[in-house]
Input
Amino acid sequence: MFTASSLTGNKAEQYAQLLQQARALMAGESDRVANAANLAALVYHALPDLNWVGFYFFDGVELVVGPFQGLPACVRIPLDKGVCGAAASTRQTQRIDDVHAFPGHIACDSASNSELVVPLVAADGSLLGVFDLDSPKHARFDADDQAGLEALAFALIQSLP
Ligand code: SME
Output
């Protein structure tokens, strides 16, 4: 049974601890659903002020919802729609302080006010999907969160075959 130890120190130190916990959870396992599910659960329960944490996987045409924590979400997102689509199509992390000001934002949970979406890109450059985090707080995510969550997303990519 996995028990998350509480995070200590400054934000960078906390993300380093979270990364260690994530690597431990995924060690020796390469199943995409298993690792994405545990990573979503780990992050959702470790970090404050989040109402949705999870994954959308690219099926070759659009993004399809994968393992997550939070309320039920929209199932399919075209690459030209929403914050997730923007992250996937530009392959750049989208850090949005106010989702209501983002053109085309898809409101899956009306409680969401800020959002961070990290694209998942394989070593060969192919798009795997996105790692999506929503918060009821405005401007919940800063540069330290972005760096920490990008490192966690990269750990998931590295765990895959
Ligand atoms: N808000 C996202 C959609 C996914 S949900 O937040 C879970 C978007 O605009 O792409």
About this structure: The chain has a mean pLDDT of 95. The chain has four helices and six strands.
